[in-house]
Amino acid sequence: MKLFDTHCHLNDEAFRDDVPAVLTRAREAGVENLLVVGYDLASSQQALKLAEDFPGIFAAVGFHPHEAATVSGEDLAKIGKMLTHEKVVALGEIGLDYHYDHSPRELQREVFRQQLAVAAKMKKPVIIHVREAHPDLLAGLKDGGLPYRGVMHCYSGSKELTREYLKLNMYISIGGPVTFTNAKKMPEMLKEIPTERLLIETDAPYLTPHPFRGQRNEPAYLTRVAMKISEILGLTPREVADLTRNNAYACFGIDESNSDGGRSWS
Ligand SMILES: [Zn+2]
Ligand SMILES: [Zn+2]
């Protein structure tokens, strides 16, 4: 199996001391490519550094809605500049989070709109984080200089919402929650996603899949997500790995021959 973890935070404090060991375990589990996603300026710079230091790793740069209150025009210009780097393949994670409301909603919408404009200008896909804000997020995507593609990360919306996002050119990325025993609506939603729009992720260090809940999540556990999806869709784990990996290459504009898959991380 060769897997692509399309959303993880090896740039997080939780991985400060052991990135090489985490990557070795990922490789042993068959995870060949990782997208390390930024959430503020420092984590975006760290994502890029990891992408430069290790083959098979790519970076996304951007401001999480939690950080909206702190973002300056200068910061956005820096993100725009980083998007010209060949290993920076997306702008993210960006979006709206009305669950925690760490930044005022109005500012979240404004910074989301500004980042969508940067993505459209730089012709890069966006990685979207949304929590309890679907109507505003859909509205923002529709009139915010629609980027040509993007990802709904760690998605768990209804099947009706899923149809709306698919219409807007979004890929749907599924993470650890699909393995939770209380994920009753996930199978129905999963079947709504055309196989060419499906991605998988860990969101490590968060959202650890069953049976490792309670521990720090890491990319090696992506196999659990692939296995659960294969069960639900009646495919082999290998088929799920192949189709989601190829979808990731297409979504992020990565040429497989340049993906560094198969090269050693050590
Ligand atoms: Zn997120
Ligand atoms: Zn994330």
Binned strand content: 15-25%
Quickly count the helices. 9
Whole-number mean pLDDT: 94
Could you please say which CATH topology applies here?
TIM Barrel
DSSP E strands, number: 8
Strand order of the largest sheet: 1-2-3-4-5-6-7-8
The rough form would be described as: globular
Query: What is Rg?
Result: 17 Å
What is the N-to-C succession of helices and strands? EHEHEHEHEHEHEHEHH
**How helix-rich are the residues, as a percent range?**
25-40%
CATH superfamily: Metal-dependent hydrolases
Low-confidence stretches: none
Quickly give the CATH architecture: Alpha-Beta Barrel
Explained architecture:
With 266 residues, the protein is of the alpha/beta class. The protein has one domain: Alpha-Beta Barrel (TIM Barrel). The protein contains 9 helices and 8 strands. The chain has helices at residues 19-29, 41-53, 73-82, 105-122, 134-143, 159-167, 186-190, 222-233, 237-252, and strands at residues 3-8, 31-37, 57-61, 88-97, 126-131, 150-152, 170-174, 198-200. It has an 8-stranded parallel beta sheet. Strand 6 (150-152), helix 6 and strand 7 (170-174) form a beta-alpha-beta unit. Helix 2 (41-53) packs parallel to helix 3, helix 4 packs parallel to helix 5 and helix 8 (222-233) crosses helix 9 (237-252). The longest helix has 18 residues, at 105-122. The radius of gyration is 17 Å and the shape is globular. The mean pLDDT is 94. Bound molecules: zinc ion (ZN) (2 copies).
